[in-house]
UniProtKB/TrEMBL annotation, chain B:
<dbReference type="Pfam" id="PF09242">
    <property type="entry name" value="FCSD-flav_bind"/>
</dbReference>
<dbReference type="GO" id="GO:0016491">
    <property type="term" value="F:oxidoreductase activity"/>
</dbReference>
<dbReference type="InterPro" id="IPR037092">
    <property type="entry name" value="FlavoCytC_S_DH_flav-bd_sf"/>
</dbReference>
<protein>
    <submittedName>
        <fullName>NAD(P)/FAD-dependent oxidoreductase</fullName>
    </submittedName>
</protein>
<dbReference type="InterPro" id="IPR052541">
    <property type="entry name" value="SQRD"/>
</dbReference>
<dbReference type="InterPro" id="IPR006311">
    <property type="entry name" value="TAT_signal"/>
</dbReference>
<keyword id="KW-0274">FAD</keyword>
<feature type="domain" description="FAD/NAD(P)-binding">
    <location>
        <begin position="31"/>
        <end position="144"/>
    </location>
</feature>
<dbReference type="InterPro" id="IPR036188">
    <property type="entry name" value="FAD/NAD-bd_sf"/>
</dbReference>
<keyword id="KW-0285">Flavoprotein</keyword>
<dbReference type="Pfam" id="PF21706">
    <property type="entry name" value="FCSD_central"/>
</dbReference>
<dbReference type="Pfam" id="PF07992">
    <property type="entry name" value="Pyr_redox_2"/>
</dbReference>
<dbReference type="InterPro" id="IPR049386">
    <property type="entry name" value="FCSD_central"/>
</dbReference>
<feature type="domain" description="Flavocytochrome c sulphide dehydrogenase flavin-binding">
    <location>
        <begin position="354"/>
        <end position="419"/>
    </location>
</feature>
<dbReference type="InterPro" id="IPR015323">
    <property type="entry name" value="FlavoCytC_S_DH_flav-bd"/>
</dbReference>
<dbReference type="InterPro" id="IPR023753">
    <property type="entry name" value="FAD/NAD-binding_dom"/>
</dbReference>
<feature type="domain" description="Sulfide dehydrogenase [flavocytochrome c] flavoprotein chain central">
    <location>
        <begin position="164"/>
        <end position="278"/>
    </location>
</feature>
């Protein structure tokens, strides 16, 4: 439970802050140790290639991943979940890649990436420092968004540990079922039934914090309290 | 699960006994009569029946056996939907939820006697009444047009045959011919509806009659999603659509259905198809029941209860409630709040603070979908918008396609939320 996606990254970009110089300096700091990252990447090569000869394998190649729209390589058979997040506007940045590598399913529901997640923030930083070298644009502008420093805001463990009340969740679910079908059919709008509760909770918090991009979901999530999110997670996890 | 819920809704021992045999028509069960089986009425009936698990006797009165949704009727005109797929029956509500579905018209409501009269002659008593009759048109709002002219100049603003008629008339236009729409004044059902309709007519014409022209005569200076529609029209149907707003006489319109002319501030234009969407008011029965003030039925913002009668709830397009647009999504959202409040009164189940929401998708061209939405909360005086969003102009094709696909998902979601 504690391992689950507790970090939701919130980024500090040059654009988001007034008075550029100090910020740029801060953000020019290295991401991590790229050499160590190269070693860590051996975990990934079963599915992904990166570098001059890289091709799509089980997973897409990772050249120019920074700044690329999720699900954007023509012809690659992405999962429905990843393609949807891409269409919603998810772009791979240091922030989003970090969240994805930490726990793929928390950022992208039903992703096909069968990787359990990399727990250590240091390892992730090193891996991303390595991958960053294969993204040309905007490689020469260290303060540009893809290399901005990540600031992680932990989702407090208490929030993940709230035991949701499924009965209350059933009441609240009436707001969801105008769009999401209770029987789990998905037809343009994803199914939200029978998810692991943590995934549901993390996903809703990611919308609430605007890390996930969808405007309807951001609006819905923002009016839900922590208890209400837990209640919905509990209800939809148990639905027949 | 059932145990959880019993504890949760706090049903009494007596009600719990009824739960054991939910389909038995026990004497003394409280009776809810729902007038109108559309977005508001069907949803309310289903949620009251579903959540009370047989403790409340629910009767739904609706004249048609198949409800054709107005939503997506524009997509039918554009060739993106089949009319058959827009029709929904009441069989599941009757069979799976134990709702008494009566196909009849309510001709009168006697609020003192707490009973409704049916066109077939019978009367039905109620403890609580839900009225969700949709809209009727304000006679005389478009000079020259009355409901008797709806075959020559369709409104296509109620479900089913009217949309088929309008589509047939669009498809029969002579090459290079002209389609006119008389747009309604605020407030009316589905604020983006007329403009989505124009988009879909333009799409259909661009396939079969690309030199045809579309004229919108509009009494309103501004309209819903205007920047998005205008951008889309420019992009997909450049040169085809012209709109005359009130600054050029769009508010001084008169039609002649026999001559097929539209006169705008005295200037007479010959047209080949004409869609007249008149000014609107609450469905007739709401007026007959004395539930209206002016054109609409005022309701309490925190429950949708009629301000005229504590035993009556009014839902959907017929109401005046504040900031929510008249949409199927809104009616569905309001119905759930009403269902909770009614169950609370009749069975003592928990009543939580009302929350409402709405999202309206519109299709501009093939896979070019946009949306607008908001969430709402009751205040003392109205249902007030608390946050909102709208698609941006200049969005890329992937996002627009996704938005369109999402609208298909919403259609499937809301219709199963209404009809089970
Ligand atoms: C072209 C168009 C496009 C639209 N697109 C959308 C959209 O994309 N999204 C959206 O959310 N909304 C959309 N809408 C709006 C939506 O259809 C309405 O807001 C919604 O139907 C309102 O629900 P309601 O319950 O108030 O009325 P209705 O759904 O109209 O239901 C009223 C029912 O009451 C019945 N009735 C009336 N009088 C009586 C009586 N005396 N006795 C018994 N029964 C009676 C009628 O037969 C009818 O079935 C659109 C509307 C139009 C016209």
């Amino acid at each position: 439970m504690a391992r689950i996606a507790a970090h939701i990254a919130v980024i500090l970009t040059a654009a988001a802050l007034p008075g550029g110089a100090a910020v740029a300096l801060e953000e020019a700091a290295p991401i991590g140790d790229a050499e160590r990252g190269a070693e860590l990447f051996t975990d990934c090569v079963g599915c992904h290639q990166v570098g001059p000869e890289a091709e799509n394998r089980i997973g897409p190649h990772l050249n120019d991943i920074f700044g690329r729209r999720a699900g954007a390589i023509e012809g690659f058979p992405y999962s429905e979940g990843l393609a949807r997040m891409g269409a919603d506007g998810l772009t791979w940045t240091l922030e989003t890649l970090d969240a994805y590598i930490e726990n793929p399913r928390a950022l992208v529901s039903r992703t096909r990436m069968a990787y359990p997640g990399m727990e250590s923030a240091g390892d992730r930083a090193d891996l991303l420092a390595y991958l960053r070298q294969f993204s040309a644009s905007p490689a020469n502008i260290p303060e540009a968004e893809p290399t901005a420093i990540v600031r992680e805001v932990d989702l407090p463990p208490e929030v993940l540990e709230i035991a949701g009340d499924p009965a209350y969740g059933e009441y609240l679910s009436a707001e969801c079922t105008t769009c999401h079908r209770r029987d789990g059919a998905s037809d343009g709008i994803p199914s939200i039934t029978n998810w692991p509760e943590e995934d549901f909770v993390v996903a809703m918090h990611a919308y609430r914090q605007e890390i996930r991009p969808h405007p309807v979901m951001q609006m819905m999530a923002k009016r839900l309290s922590d208890d209400e999110i837990a209640a919905l997670a509990a209800y939809f996890a148990r639905i027949d | 699960m059932t145990l959880d819920r019993r504890a949760f809704i706090g049903t009494t021992a007596a009600a719990a006994a009824t739960l054991a045999a939910p389909m038995v028509r026990a004497q003394g069960r409280p009776r809810v009569v729902v007038v109108g089986g559309g977005c508001g009425g069907a949803t309310a009936a289903r949620y009251i029946a579903k959540d009370s698990e047989g403790a409340i006797d629910v009767t739904l009165i609706e004249p048609t056996r198949t409800y054709y949704t107005c939503f997506f009727s524009n997509l039918y005109i554009g060739g993106f939907q089949e009319m058959d797929d827009l029709g929904h029956g009441y069989g599941t509500l009757a069979a799976d939820y134990g709702i008494n579905v009566v196909h009849d018209w309510v001709t009168a409501v006697d609020r003192d006697a707490k009973s409704v009269t049916l066109a077939s002659g019978g009367a039905l008593p109620y403890d609580r009444l839900v009225v969700s009759p949709g809209i009727d048109f304000v006679e005389g709002s478009v000079p020259g047009w009355s409901v008797a002219d709806q075959d020559a100049m369709p409104h296509a603003y109620k479900g089913g045959t009217q949309a088929e008629l309008l589509k047939a008339q669009v498809m029969a236009m002579p090459e290079g011919g002209r389609y006119a729409m008389v747009a309604p004044p605020n407030p009316y059902r589905c604020p983006p509806g007329p403009y989505e309709r124009v988009s879909m007519v333009a799409h259909a014409l661009s396939q079969v009659n690309p030199t045809a022209k579309i004229l919108i005569v509009d009494p309103k200076a501004k309209f819903s999603k205007q920047a998005l529609f205008e951008e889309g029209w420019q992009k997909h149907y450049s040169g085809m659509i012209e709109r005359i707003g009130p600054d050029f006489g769009g508010d001084k319109v008169e039609v002649d259905p026999a001559a097929m002319t539209v006169s705008i501030d005295g200037m007479v234009e010959k047209v080949d198809a004409c869609n007249v969407i008149p000014a609107q008011k609450a469905g007739r029965i709401a007026h007959q029941a004395g539930l209206t003030e002016g054109n609409w039925a005022p309701v309490e913002p925190d429950s949708m209860r009629s301000k005229k009668d504590p035993n009556v709830w009014v839902l959907g397009d017929a109401t005046s409630q504040g900031d929510m647009p008249k949409s199927g999504f809104s009616a569905n959202s309001q119905a759930k709040v009403a269902a909770m409040a009614i169950r609370g009164e009749l069975t003592g189940s928990a009543v939580f603070p009302a929350r409402y929401s709405n999202t309206c998708w519109s299709l501009i061209a093939t896979e070019d979908g946009v949306k607008v939405g908001a969430s709402y909360e009751p205040t003392e005086e109205k249902i007030a918008s608390v946050s909102s969003f709208i698609s941006d102009t200049g969005e890329d094709a992937a996002l627009r396609r996704q938005t369109y696909e999402e609208s298909l998902g919403w259609y499937s979601g809301i219709t199963s939320d209404m009809f089970g």
